[in-house]
């Protein structure tokens, strides 16, 4: 008798499970149930269709039901919602949404890939006709059609995660005036705050009205259409269209009702074979709990890459395979116009929460040889364990070359490398593509120096706190006079690094010293000079480029004037 495999849900995990099950067992009967009208589509591409970067809608439809049937002999049933799983009887209850009828289906193996659903808070008028989410093809169609038909001028995006930032970019490219509202004090929560501010600065510079640390209190309007968004701060924003993007949660209702075990994250608990607490049921994708490769602990990651890999494993094992799913790193990347941000592994905040004794470094390095045209700086934050030097995570921000570097860091994390190992990576070099010492190598050098006590770093956050607590600290700017006049941290003394040896007498050896430059290199050289002359010295990690993260009360009068004209009192 043929093995009967039922799959609940399509898209990345479900489609991968179905096709891998077929490749593993040519004789199995495979049926996939999808409550929507599309079984396999590129949901990560939805914002780019709204932006009109992807022009042909059909390009987002990866595999059609007909292609599943012809190539793989998989029976795909669209508009079929599974309402109940009966593990004891090994059956499911399915409702045909078009016919309005229900039936019972038997299974030998069941694969759950229900995905995640958008979080919709109970805000007045949140279900108005011009308030949208962005998870499915119908969501995308609704936004696109509304823009084409109604020609909105002002848009508000609520939530500054990946989809939120991508939708801000899409609407901005369509010519709308966009406001981005985020409850947290930063955009892109997977980044650390001292990196995220660079993305926020770029978003503001592009003309987007950015409200951080502020939430939505209510929507206002009439005729079932929002016209204004009231924030918790009291600010009122005009809005012709609203995109809700405050996050998603795993869709676990079927699993809970069937008595399947949930994990500590609230998602479906599975083992390395993607098997649930029921030996005949597997699960994969955004609805399941994963294991983090760095910590070895359960986590929940809703990303297409892990979902596809997990679906493949679940599908193979549902027909007798012995595959195991890899742990996850949460590697991800996002773009807003000319800036790209990427992260892999743990950020500094999550590493501390996980109990690691954390150290970090921030470097700025050109994405290719500086003498070759169009060289641009990448900013890299490396997070590692202080005692062992083990790499824990990395964040990269820039323009060209961000994707290449984050993938190198993800590979290094998979190999359980130390920061010292980054210095030894033999990476491709030609002037248009890289440097003889790649930015990843440089990140390793700087981290290694910190570990060996060749330099004692201080983050911008810690320096801000230190300056507020200890008037004894001597702050020394080791850049050029021209750079100092343009912008410097208030209270700093200018001593260019090339003059430092001759001017050591101007620095009190009995008081702590913090040096800084533009990106950290001259500060490192200055710190070595001072340390070997008996000074207690620390170097600002990442230089003054990272200092803009701090409050405007701590920037120089020169920078204040560049921002506010002669009204320096605002700084």
Describe this structure as you would to a colleague.
The chain is α/β, with parallel strands linked by helices. 27% of the residues lie in helices and 25% in strands. The strands form eight sheets. It has a five-stranded parallel β-sheet. Helix 14 links the parallel strand 27 and strand 28 (493-494). Helix 1 (11-24) runs parallel beside helix 8 (304-318).
Major beta-sheet overview: 5 strands, parallel
Q: What's the shape?
A: globular
Helix percentage: 25-40%
Side-by-side strand order of the widest sheet: 3-2-1-7-18
Distance between the termini: 77 Å
List keywords for this structure.
571 residues, alpha/beta, 30 strands, 27% helix, disordered C terminus
SSE arrangement:
Layout: E1 4-8, H1 11-24, E2 29-34, H2 46-50, H3 65-72, E3 74-78, E4 80-86, E5 91-96, E6 101-106, E7 109-112, E8 116-118, E9 131-132, H4 137-150, E10 154-158, H5 162-173, E11 177-182, H6 193-205, E12 209-212, E13 216-222, E14 225-231, E15 236-238, E16 241-244, E17 248-250, H7 253-257, E18 281-283, E19 290-291, E20 298-299, H8 304-318, E21 332-336, E22 339-345, H9 348-353, E23 358-366, E24 377-385, E25 391-398, H10 402-414, H11 419-422, H12 439-451, E26 457-458, H13 460-469, E27 474-477, H14 481-486, E28 493-494, E29 513-516, H15 521-531, E30 537-540, H16 557-564
Parallel strand pairs: 1-2, 1-7, 2-3, 7-18, 9-16, 10-11, 10-16, 11-12, 26-30, 27-28, 27-29, 29-30
Antiparallel strand pairs: 4-5, 5-6, 8-17, 13-14, 14-15, 19-20, 21-22, 22-25, 23-24, 24-25
Helix pairs in contact: 1-8
């Amino acid at each position: 008798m043929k093995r009967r495999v039922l799959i609940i849900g399509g898209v990345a995990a479900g489609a991968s499970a179905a096709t891998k099950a077929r490749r593993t067992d040519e004789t199995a009967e495979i049926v996939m149930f999808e409550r929507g009208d599309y079984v396999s589509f590129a949901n990560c591409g939805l914002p780019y269709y709204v932006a009109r970067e992807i022009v042909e809608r059909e390009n987002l439809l990866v595999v059609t039901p007909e292609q599943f049937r012809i190539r793989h002999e998989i029976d795909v049933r669209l508009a079929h919602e599974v309402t109940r799983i009966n593990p004891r009887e090994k059956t499911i209850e399915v409702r045909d949404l078009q016919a309005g009828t229900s039936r019972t289906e038997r299974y030998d193996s069941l694969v759950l890939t229900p995905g995640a659903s958008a979080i919709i808070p109970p805000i007045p008028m949140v279900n108005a006709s011009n308030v949208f989410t962005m998870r499915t093809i119908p969501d995308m169609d609704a936004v696109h059609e509304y823009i084409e038909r109604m020609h909105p001028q002002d848009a508000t995006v609520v939530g500054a995660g990946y989809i939120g930032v991508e939708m801000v970019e899409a609407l901005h490219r369509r010519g709308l005036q966009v406001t981005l509202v985020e409850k947290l004090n930063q955009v892109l929560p997977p980044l650390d705050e001292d990196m995220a501010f660079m993305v926020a600065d770029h978003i503001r510079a592009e003309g987007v009205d950015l409200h951080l640390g502020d939430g939505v209190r209510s929507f206002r309007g009439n005729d079932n259409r929002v016209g204004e968004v009231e924030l918790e701060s009291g600010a009122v924003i005009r809005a012709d269209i609203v995109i809700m993007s405050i996050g998603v949660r795993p869709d676990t209702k079927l699993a809970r009702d069937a008595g399947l075990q949930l994990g500590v994250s609230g998602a479906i608990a599975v083992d390395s074979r993607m098997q649930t607490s029921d030996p005949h049921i597997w699960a994969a994708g955004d609805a399941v709990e994963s294991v983090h490769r760095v910590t070895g602990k359960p986590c929940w990651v809703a990303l297409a890459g892990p979902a596809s890999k997990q679906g493949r494993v679940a599908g193979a094992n549902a027909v007798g395979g012995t595959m195991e799913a890899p742990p996850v790193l949460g590697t991800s990347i996002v773009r807003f116009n000319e800036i790209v941000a990427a992260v892999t592994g743990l950020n500094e905040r999550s590493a501390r929460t996980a109990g690691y004794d954390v150290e970090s470094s921030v470097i700025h390095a050109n994405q290719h040889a500086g003498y070759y045209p169009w060289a641009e700086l990448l900013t890299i934050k490396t997070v590692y364990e202080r005692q062992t030097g083990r790499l824990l995570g990395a964040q990269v921000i820039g323009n060209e070359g961000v994707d290449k570097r984050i993938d190198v860091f993800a590979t290094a994390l998979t190999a359980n490398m130390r920061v010292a190992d980054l210095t030894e990576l033999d990476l491709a070099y030609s002037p248009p593509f890289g440097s003889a010492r790649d930015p990843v190598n440089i990140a390793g050098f700087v981290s290694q120096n910190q570990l060996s006590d060749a330099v004692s770093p201080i983050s911008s956050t810690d320096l801000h706190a230190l300056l507020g607590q200890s008037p004894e600290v001597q702050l020394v700017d080791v850049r050029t006079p021209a750079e100092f006049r343009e912008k410097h941290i208030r209270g700093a003394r200018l001593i260019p690094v090339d003059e430092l040896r001759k001017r050591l007498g101007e620095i009190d050896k009995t008081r702590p010293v913090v040096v800084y430059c533009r990106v950290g290199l001259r500060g490192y050289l200055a710190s070595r000079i001072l340390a070997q002359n008996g000074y207690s010295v620390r170097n600002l990690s990442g230089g003054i480029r990272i200092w803009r993260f701090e409050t405007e009360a701590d920037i120089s009068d020169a920078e204040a004037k560049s921002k506010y004209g002669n009204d320096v009192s605002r700084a």
